[in-house]
Design brief:
4-stranded antiparallel beta sheet, single chain, mainly beta
């Protein structure tokens, strides 16, 4: 981590950083940031006895004792986060972060964090995958604003084994000068194992408006041949 003249190597051994250093944690496998926060994915993190269940550590960029300040740790055992930690989920394999401006602020005081869970089983469908989007506040308080997989009502497509929904995620606030709303935030989700009608594992990108009350209302599943080159 570098900020100005400060350079700090971070690990789960540092004070306040969620988790414990263990084999296969893969702390730093994924990274995401805004000007106020950053997040570190550890998709190999064990949660209880569930190996490779995964987790995410969140920091703000205020330096304390020469290091950024840890403010939260997330996994599927965290209160308010959908799902349950299971072996191989890979929570945090991909993460993305963008600014969030609440209605009572004139700036992006908060952040939205998208978390890919490509190894998530959906019912009996192995590795269909899923995504969680979490709002992060300066205090470290967090709220899941949505979670989806291919069985979420009205979401395009079906949950198929090996789809790996959430292998890559990218979230963006398209207008950070106004109060954040469903109209200003977009989320793109990679599904590299998605089959098309004629090609196995051809892959797809799913686009969502993650702040919509019903996440399937205006989603779009994009594959080659669906208007893409």
């Amino acid at each position: 981590y570098v900020q100005g003249n400060t350079t700090k190597a971070l690990s789960e051994n540092d004070p306040g950083v969620p988790g414990v250093v263990e084999a296969n944690d893969r702390f730093g496998y994924s990274l995401a940031a805004t000007n106020r926060y950053f997040a570190v994915g550890s998709p190999g993190e064990a949660v209880g006895d569930a190996e490779f269940a995964g987790g995410v550590a969140i920091f703000n960029q205020t330096l304390s004792n020469g290091m950024p300040t840890p403010i939260a740790g997330l996994d599927q055992d965290s209160t308010g986060i959908a799902g349950a930690p299971e072996a191989g989920d890979g929570f945090g394999t991909s993460i993305s972060m963008t600014g969030y401006r609440p209605g009572d602020q004139t700036y992006n005081s908060d952040a939205l964090l998208a978390i890919g869970i490509p190894g998530e089983d959906v019912g009996t469908v192995a590795d269909a995958g899923g995504v969680s989007v979490v709002r992060v506040q300066p205090s470290g308080a967090f709220t899941q604003v949505t979670a989806m997989d291919a069985t979420t009502p009205d979401v395009e497509g079906d949950a198929v084994a090996g789809d790996a929904m959430g292998q890559r995620v990218a979230i963006s606030n398209t207008d950070s000068t106004v109060v954040t709303s469903a109209a200003t935030v977009r989320l793109a989700v990679g599904e590299p194992g998605k089959d098309t009608a004629t090609v196995k594992d051809a892959g797809a990108v799913h686009v969502f408006r993650p702040l919509d009350p019903a996440i399937g209302t205006a989603d779009k599943l994009l594959t080659r041949g669906s208007g893409l080159p």
